[in-house]
Amino acid sequence: MNNRADKESLLAEVLAEASPGDFRATMLAEMLRLARRRRHFRQVRRFAGVLFVLGLLAVLVVKQTPKPAMVSAPPPDRIVKQSYELVLTQPMPASALISTRSFSGNQMVASVGTVVEIVTTTGGFHLINDEELLALLADKPAVLIRTGPNSEELVFANPEDQKKFLVY
Amino acid sequence: MAAGDEPAFREFYDAYFDRLLRYLLVVTGGNEEAAREALQLALVGVVRHVKPFDAEEKFWSWLTVLARSALADEGRKQRRHFAFLERFTRHRETGPAASSNGEADEQLRALLASQLTTLPADERQLVEQKYLLHQSVREIANGQKTTEKAVESKLSRVRRKLKDAVLMELKHEQPR
Questions:
Q1: Cα(B68)–Cα(B89) distance, integer angstroms
Q2: Three-state DSSP class for residue A18
Q3: What value of ipTM does the predicted structure carry?
Q4: What pLDDT does residue A53 have?
Q5: Mean predicted confidence (pLDDT) in B25-40
Q6: How many Cβ atoms from other residues are within 10 Å of residue A84's Cβ?
Q7: Residues paired with residue A144 on neighbouring β-strands, in sequence order
Q8: What is the value of pTM for the model shown?
Q9: Cβ neighbour number for residue B118 with a 10 Å cutoff
Q10: Which of A20, B96, B130, B159 has the least C-beta neighbours within 10 A?
Q11: C-alpha span between A10 and A4 (Å, rounded)
């Protein structure tokens, strides 16, 4: 048995003898399963990498784009109360304005010449006593009642007579 | 294979499965179970770490490194094989590439040829008829006036006998 191929064939069959029948097939199936899983994992990883790069680009684009200016009201707790009240004014129309001017000479009225001056002088009268008072009454019945050391009251018998002596 | 091509893995398997197993049988000193376990781990390593090589020799060298690493890992896991591990370590120390370049196959072929000579005449004749003269089982059965089944059964026994003898020889050989 000198032929190398013959020896090889015999060696292969001898070594395969009494080996588990499905050992070779099982190993091949396991190896192919691992290869498929590895290939699938690589595909998923590549796809995830592409997604990551795309996401990164999207973020960069969004950050580079200028945002429109937005006016936002300050939060309520940050409103500062002013210590003054703002009042808006505007000029009044000409028709609402009142202007003054000096009168001409003939329109002026002087009141000094028409005033009547009354001058009073002291004296010309005197105090009368009780008899002189009663004499002035003449025919009008009346009685003088002393109410105190320095006070007296004149009482008319007819109240109508009293009205004739009232001085306003 | 690096791209995960399935037909490439099948081609690899057909080309290297037997070769790696024989290599591991020699490295383990005929420990068939350890060789199978290590082969399984090595094939997993191939799937995970395969890469392009510019020459077949480099690829085979890489495969043998994977196989020996797998064997070492398996040996560490199975403390009961401490003696074997020690032997394997000695083997690595004396020459990790001693069986790298087809030497394992050559060693096995030589052991097989040696064991063939120890077979009884009728068994050796049967093997020669089948594997040298390429006679079919029917032709052998007709020539020996027996049944095909009997020939098949006898062939199987002889092959098993040869295998056990070869593995035993590997165990008794000094590590190379």
A1: 10
A2: coil
A3: 0.72
A4: 94
A5: 89
A6: 5
A7: A154
A8: 0.56
A9: 11
A10: A20
A11: 10
